[in-house]
Structure prediction request, 408 residues.
Amino acid sequence: MTKVKGTYDVLPSESANWQNLEAKLRKIFLSFGYQEIRTPIMEYYETIHRHNEDSDMVKKETYDFLDHGERRLTLRPELTAGIIRSYVENKLYVDNDVTRVFYMGANFRYERPQKGRFRQFSQFGVELINASGTLADAEIIILISTILKKLKIKAQININSLGDQDSRNHFKTIIKEYFSHYQDHLCGDCLQRLEVNPLRILDCKVDNHQDFFLNCPKPLDFLNAESQANFVKLQKILDNNQIAYQVNKNLVRGLDYYDELVFEIISQVEGTPLAIGGGGRYNNLVSDLGGPATQAIGFAFGFERVLSCLPPTKNKPLDVYCLFLEEGSLDYPLLNTLRQAGLQVKSNLLIAPLSKLLAKAYRDNPRYIIVVGSDEKAQGLYSLRNATTKEQIQTNLPNLIKIIKENK
Prediction:
């Protein structure tokens, strides 16, 4: 038996990398006033496959199935839609306050597995809901910058504006007319996009190297006055707060619900540029899912991609390995006392000669080894061995704990 293609196992030797990153992220999110939200990994089909969502991710890459009750379900390919569904279903909008949430969780997309891309993958991110204006946009970019600094990741934040609905509709007309002159050069998907949603052509990974593609009109050049002013104001706020960014006119996002500000975070992984995160503003998704007209903005990072930018984390070393020489010397009160003192403790599960028990204990690389026989248990005195120096003393339990904790 093998794992499913496009998935992976996080082995015990690797789990500390995940735990360390999760702990740092929670601390950052909480410091910005965001609270955690957890939503199901499956949603009703219609939550993901909305009538106005024409992205490749939704059309081609989702895992869709019927359950035993013939209900049509989808494993979530991203978390934003499910979070907004939860926001609407639980009426979190009733107090008309800003909602700040963060998340961590698994997603599922059927695509060709490759380096940094899996069919089951994890993301972390935030949603800032019922928040309009450039101060909200700036908070999100500043939060991203803070994450990169705290994690010591060298990355570039690229930003762009797609404009509001009026700007987007105007640009769709322009981009459709432009690409209609190059239909003989477009891939099959882009020929369909030309009729259904020409803006999606800008996200094509097949044609984007061709000259006619590189020289096509850009959304940023066709913003109306209000959208242009908002984008300029955002840049001034970021500049005044020494937040580094780059304007990238070619940047679009892979989902149709984005409008106005979009952004992407690019880092170098083994010498190759890699998008480790991205996001943007979405001002119609709440109403699309049955809620009131509500503006929102958010971002998501790929856990696996961020971990590839970080040095490995060593698992916390084992504090104590207790060796019980006979079944009668088993001392659970001793083990519980050590654990209640905040120590990591293992013990042998089979009785064997001391030499074999010591060899097994050293393979777990503990800081200390405690040897317990019937006499030691009766006397309340324990042999404490420093696993590094091999020095050994006999002492009582309070002093034993004191020595171990003082030398931690």
Summary: The CA atoms of residues 138 and 237 lie 7 Å apart.
